[in-house]
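Tip: read the tokens left to right.
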């Protein structure tokens, strides 16, 4: 699914109007009808709607929805803010339709405004500003937003909460943004909806299909997409009936200083649960007993040091190499990582302490093999690219790193973002807050490593791996709940995730 910018939505509206063909007023009526039907589905005619409409097309949508709600028997009080005396053509047309509509209380504000009495039984419809907003709200509009946010009524925003910009809110003013309980967005989600700091503003998001041109959507190039299940289903390769362990890939996991063997176990088990044929673990000798008992399927390669990874080993026989879980950042380990990076002939997965070491030695990043996969959480990413002010800034800097170094960077979190060497950003939709638990990232490393070893390209491994990781988390959540699930529960849910994808396909 493509994520369009505000300017691209304008192009899409124009394309639809020109090619369907349909008038802009007709397209607004279609949007208003979809909004009204969703409101009618959620609230009975006992509900009073208080509608705040702005002077642009977002306000036009709100005015049209006001009319349709009134005709459906609802009590509607509508306020149109026309401070400058300039309304968009379609907003003006819908204003004129309201002026003579019986049963609807309509007020146009051109200067002073007294905020109405609103109870917690009312529903506020926010149609002040849409995706065309490009600067923070101030003055009277900021004051109006504060009054709306302070009310006890539920708030429904049309397309996007007023004051929130559809992409970059780095320099926005939080107090000037509507805090919606429900956002009825048109055709597809806006990029800002995928960022954690914006969740308090958008509430529940419901996407309404308003029939924008499918041909137009296909024609517009978007650098940001959301992975859909059918895409990963088609990516999943069938297992050869004559497969053997030698044909299913051999992975090397370099992991685990003494006392951090648990991270190694989690990554190893996830790797094995993701279909790899063979797995070798290079680890300090002190981890031998716990790994032999916990992961008997893996072969161990003992480091010369009892307590940490201190020397690199030859990696030519392995189809994939992963370094980082529980690794530690001792200088001996750092030098070993540097040797692995310089000598490995193909892509590698770098996670956790491997990324922390690179943050201390940024000059080594240029030596990482192209198409390798880095899997930082936000703090680890900042060690690589510098301080990030918000999620948009984080995405931008991760994408720049991907392009410059020709690497895949998976910024972990809810809606993990895969930044690719071509500049594309792919948002992963699976997963839940229960995955915010120790070891979750180690599980992802194991999955990615197995997929690389099995012959998937780095791009395929990133998309399929993050989707499976989140899906396993969702399956685990269904059984154990968000509070009680652990990383091991995700590993134990991987078989159901693979099976679900295969069966659905």
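Filled-in amino acids:
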């Amino acid at each position: 699914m493509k994520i369009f910018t505000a300017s691209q939505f304008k192009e899409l509206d124009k394309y639809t109007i020109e090619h369907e063909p349909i008038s802009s007023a007709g397209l607004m009526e279609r949007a208003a009808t979809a909004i009204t039907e969703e409101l009618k589905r959620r609230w009975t005619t006992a509900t009073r709607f208080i509608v705040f409409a702005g002077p642009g097309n977002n306000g036009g949508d709100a005015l049209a929805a006001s009319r349709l709600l009134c005709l459906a028997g609802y009590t509607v009080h509508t306020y149109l803010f026309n401070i400058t005396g300039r309304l968009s053509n379609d907003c003006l047309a819908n204003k004129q339709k309201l002026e003579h509509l019986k049963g609807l209380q309509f007020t146009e504000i051109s200067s002073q405004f007294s905020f109405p009495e609103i109870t917690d039984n009312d529903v506020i419809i926010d149609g002040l500003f849409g995706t065309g907003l490009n600067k923070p709200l101030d003055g009277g509009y900021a004051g109006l937003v504060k009054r709306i946010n302070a009310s006890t009524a539920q708030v429904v925003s049309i397309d996007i909460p007023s004051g929130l910009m559809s992409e970059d809110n780095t320099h926005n003013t939080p107090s000037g943004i509507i805090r919606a309980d429900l956002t009825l967005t048109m055709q597809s989600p806006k990029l800002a909806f995928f960022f954690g700091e914006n969740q308090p503003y958008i509430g529940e998001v419901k996407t309404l299909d308003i029939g924008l041109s499918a041909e137009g959507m296909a024609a517009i190039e978007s650098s940001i997409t959301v992975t859909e299940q059918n895409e990963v289903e088609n990516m999943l390769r069938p297992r050869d009936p004559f497969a053997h362990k030698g044909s299913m890939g051999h992975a090397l996991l370099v992991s685990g200083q003494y006392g951090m063997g648990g991270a190694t176990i989690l990554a190893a088990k996830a790797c094995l649960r993701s279909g790899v044929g063979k797995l070798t673990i290079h680890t300090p000798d002190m981890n031998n007993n716990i790994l032999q008992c916990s992961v008997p399927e893996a072969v161990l390669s003992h480091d010369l040091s009892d307590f940490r990874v201190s020397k690199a080993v030859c990696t030519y026989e392995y189809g994939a190499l992963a370094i980082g879980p529980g690794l530690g950042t001792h200088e001996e380990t750092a030098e070993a990582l540097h040797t692995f990076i310089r000598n490995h002939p193909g892509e590698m997965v770098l996670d956790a302490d491997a990324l922390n070491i690179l943050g201390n030695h940024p000059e080594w990043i240029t030596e990482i093999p192209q198409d390798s996969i880095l899997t930082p959480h936000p703090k680890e990413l900042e060690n690589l690219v510098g301080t990030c002010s918000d999620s948009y800034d984080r995405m931008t800097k991760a994408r720049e790193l991907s392009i410059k170094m020709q690497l895949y960077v998976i910024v972990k979190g809810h809606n993990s973002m895969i930044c690719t060497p071509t500049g594309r950003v792919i948002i992963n939709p699976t997963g839940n807050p229960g995955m915010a638990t120790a070891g979750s990232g180690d599980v992802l490393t194991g999955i990615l490593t197995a997929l690389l070893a099995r012959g998937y390209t780095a791009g395929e491994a990133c998309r399929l791996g993050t989707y499976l990781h989140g899906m396993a988390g969702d399956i685990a959540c269904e059984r154990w709940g968000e509070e009680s699930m652990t990383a091991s529960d995700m590993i134990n849910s991987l078989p159901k995730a693979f099976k679900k994808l295969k069966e659905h396909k």
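The chain has 17 helices and 17 strands. The longest helix spans residues 458-480.
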